[in-house]
Amino acid sequence: MRFKNKVALVTGGARDIGKAISIKLASEGAHVIVNYAQSEEAALQTLSEIKSAGGDATVFQADLTRAAEVQKLKDFSFATFGDKLNILVNNAGGIIGRKKIFEQDEDFYDSVMNLNFKSLFLVTHAFIKSIPSGGSIVNVSSLAARDGGGGGSSLYAASKGAITT
Fold first, then answer.
1. How far apart are CA 13 and CA 60, in angstroms?
2. CB 133 within 8 A of CB 84
3. Buried b (16+ CB within 10 A) or exposed e, 88-108
4. HSE on the CB side for 103, CA within 13 Å?
5. pLDDT per residue as tens digits for the range 105-164
6. Which of 7, 25, 111, 126 has the fewest CB atoms within 10 Å distance of its CB?
7. Cβ pair 116, 94 in contact under 8 A
């Protein structure tokens, strides 16, 4: 129970890698805030699995590309658990789509960069002063940050590269 009495926030914590991280942190005693943007059903399934295994978690919906929604997440966290966060896992992100440069437009650019980089910036900025000494911030990137991610993923690779450096 390495994280007993610790509070952890996992952005994009409802599915895939985020789900595995949420479950593991809860199994180690953390109270996990499972953030999701759109996958409410997956978030509730993750919550159910955590609770069935004896863990402790809550879910919170927020679009982390919007500062006002990040503030609501912070307000919820502080109102529920006090004004500290021990573990922040910035996991929210995704490739959105594979498009060659001539297929991309400004809206696509904004969507990819906002999801993968701006969200991490906004969440980290909101919580960093409330992470006590000994706390952790973990930024989940991608191998694409180093190898380009294959055809049609230049923006995704760039957004993940921005958080890797």
1. 10
2. no
3. bbbbbbbbbeebeeeeeeeee
4. 9
5. 999 999 999 999 999 999 999 999 999 999 999 999 887 667 778 888 899 999 999 998
6. 111
7. yes
Task: Check: CB of residue 155 under 8 Å from CB of residue 144.
Answer: no
Are the C-beta atoms of 47 and 14 separated by less than 8 Å? no
Residues 6+ apart with CB under 8 A from 94: 115, 116
C-alpha to C-alpha distances, 114 to 25, 83, 158, nearest whole angstrom: 26, 26, 12
* Element (DSSP H or E) covering residue 90: strand 87-90
CA atoms within 13 A on the CB side of 150: 5
Summarised one tens digit per residue, pLDDT across range 53-64 is: 999 999 999 999
Residue positions annotated with a catalytic role: 141-142, 156, 160
How many angstroms separate the CA atoms of 111 and 99, rounded?
A: 13
